Structure to design on (106 residues):
């Protein structure tokens, strides 16, 4: 379950029992499917870049996808698709929220 305060959710390429999820390009595939969901909606050529709401990356040696809360606000079915992908594949999910930058020292 994802709390309402989380701004970002990390879907890790590691199953609940610690195995690496396959195929190795799963994160890029998932983010590619979600590329049409973006601020302002899909536009010509938007399929050529990832949505800022669903970005593949790595954490340590593991692939992951960072899903921003704005995706849920924009299209709840798209959010459910991503969360169900994680659930159906028994992937680990971690929440995160942005913290303000510390004040600049003078």
């Amino acid at each position: 379950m994802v709390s309402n305060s989380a701004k970002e959710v990390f879907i890790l390429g590691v199953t609940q029992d610690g195995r690496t999820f396959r195929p190795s390009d799963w994160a890029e595939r998932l983010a590619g499917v979600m590329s049409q969901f973006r601020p302002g909606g899909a536009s010509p050529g938007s399929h050529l870049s990832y949505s800022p709401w669903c970005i593949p990356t790595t954490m340590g040696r593991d692939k992951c996808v960072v899903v921003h809360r704005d995706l849920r606000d924009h299209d709840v079915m798209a959010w459910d698709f991503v969360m169900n992908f994680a659930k159906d594949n028994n992937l680990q999910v971690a929440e995160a929220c942005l913290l303000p930058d510390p004040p600049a020292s003078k």
Summary: The first helix runs from residue 26 to 33. The chain has a mean pLDDT of 87. The longest strand covers residues 8-15. The helical segments are 26-33, 69-74, 76-88.
